[in-house]
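Table S2 (continued). Query chain:
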Amino acid sequence: MATDNKQTEITVKQSFPVLNMTCAGCAVSSESTVKALPGVLNASVNFANATLTVEYLPNMTNASVMRRALQDIGYDLFLENESAQQETLEDIHEKKYKKLKNKTIWAIILSIPVVVIGMFFMHMPYGNEIMWLFSTPIVLWLGKDFFGNAWKQAKHRSANMDTLVALSTGIAYIFSVFNMLFPEFWLKRNLEPHVYFEAAAVIIAFILLGKLLEEKAKGNTSSAIKKLMGLQPKTVILMLPDGTEKQVAIDDVNVGDVILVKPGEKIAVDGMVTSGNSYVDESMLSGEPVPVQKKENEKVFAGTINQKGSFQFKATKVGKETMLAQIIRMVQDAQGSKAPVQKLVDKIAGIFVPIVISIAILTFILWLTLDGSEGLIHGLLAAVTVLVIACPCALGLATPTAIMVGVGKGAEQGILIKDAESLELAKKVNAIILDKTGTITEGKPQVTDIQWLREDPVSQQVLFSLEKQSEHPLADAVVKHLENIKPIPLSSFESITGKGAKAAYEGEDYYAGNKKLLSENGIHIAPQLQQHADAWSAASKTVIWFANDKEALAVLAISDKIKETSLEAIQQLKDLDIELYMLTGDNEATAKAIAEQTGIPHYKAEVLPQQKADFVKELHKRGKVVAMVGDGINDSTALATADVSIAMGKGSDIAMDVAKMTIISSDLKKIPAAIRLSKQTVATIRQNLFWAFIYNLIGIPIAAGILYPINGFLLNPMIAGAAMALSSVSVVSNSLRLRLKK
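Corresponding output:
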């Protein structure tokens, strides 16, 4: 694609629901149509949740252009921002389901007398005419969508499942009408003029029933999204400046508004508690069943449920910015993404229908050639049965339905999975790198000890002011410890990555950081300070040094408690035969102590952010599939380099943006749970694909009549229609079994 180098072109990535798709071939057809449009860089259509994800250049194309292109081939896009579009997507799906249900009921009612006459009273007077009377509305009214969609596909030299249904039922119906109106054509040739109205009617009835069951089951695969969407209340109680209360709609809440939450109510938006206290159930976000205490200056999140107390909080994030809204968006994106194995399936689905039509034609020719007098009738029946039994839907649904259920189940347990690829890959992980602070430990460091070379108020002020400008979590601990000290103005502040910080006061340089920072600047450390540092390091405390450009002035000990769940999680990961590594910027003694306490066999201390990423590459060279688990900005490079990146939900936003998975509660036990979920999901995908491939590989040859020379068995088209309907439903049902697994 030619681009104007003078201007930087910004791409837009959006997702739109696709309407009127009936099979996996439809997904492939609509995807290739959008991809062919000028300005579209990439497009992907997920059949299971009927979603188009597209990346395009807005100066060359837009959603309306894509919509028109899809409408030309019988599909449509749901564009929420259209003012004329009054119905919600939910309403459209509900209407579609009700319409399909009515069609199915009528098709079954009308096909019953046709089957009874065709199988038991075929020689009754006017039997053919009665069957024709009942089957005509089934084929031409209830089944008209199959013919309409097939015609739209044919105009664009394409074919899908509607083509197969239209051909099979159309041939059976027209052949039967001919035999009913012109029986003498066959009687002259000493052949009985059979009619197959029951086949045409029952095939449509079964396929409509299969689609109805499939729609119902597909609706269940997205139940996690529906649960999340139902967490947000519709109204809130606002506290007005004069102290009065006012009930308003959720859409009218603005950042800065103060909201009152009463016992048992759902919290509407993200915010910060301003008065009162209570316990809040955050299990729907984190998967953790124990309510969390909330008091003044603590964060609360939309969708969580207040327990017995009441409190007021100030709204900090509303609408699409809340954590709940972001989780819903991430889950939707993940459910709409494609696993790597899906690419192969899409290729097969794209050529499936033309291959089936070719097999049906070949079947007809072979019967006509090899079966003499009855070759025409047998060949026609076999060709119709081949067209009916072939099922591209089972193939198309095999992977995405399992991914949808897997991602949804993860979200319910507080494991946010950004894409299908990471869910598929997690089962292969055989090496995990863990950051220490905030991952293995609580991430709430506190100063436990401080030793000065000599008490000096100015030095304390410099240390406090220096750490106040630093963004490191350990600096926060020092600031909290020295909060009563008055800050002083420093000059030339400089943050030194992985080592600490430096600033000047009245012409003299001061340093705060690790021992490496002091060594590199040739700073002397007094033996009595070193003695304290060694003792604290041995007790698994982090040591921070404060110095001027000549000597160390103080040494501080900072302790960060190991999470209660970390020990159990690490043991579970070892039981899964996964190699564990701990990388930390902390000193050797502290790193060793934490590794020994948690049972992590491999660790590296005083590691810089880039060195973490380099270590991931080193493990890659050893043939390892690597997962990186971290929570800080300093982990983001390593997270981006790893095969599977996992961020702790209570860490930095950058880490969560980079990571492919987020553990909302920051509980390490969720990582083995995510790996088990990956194994279960991939196993389900394999079962689905096996069933879909085997069904078609066995079903099509039997439908073609391969058993006829052996035992005289020729498959009835009605049975083929039932089998075809069952195949899609069985694949979706197998995916839904994932929800029941632990």
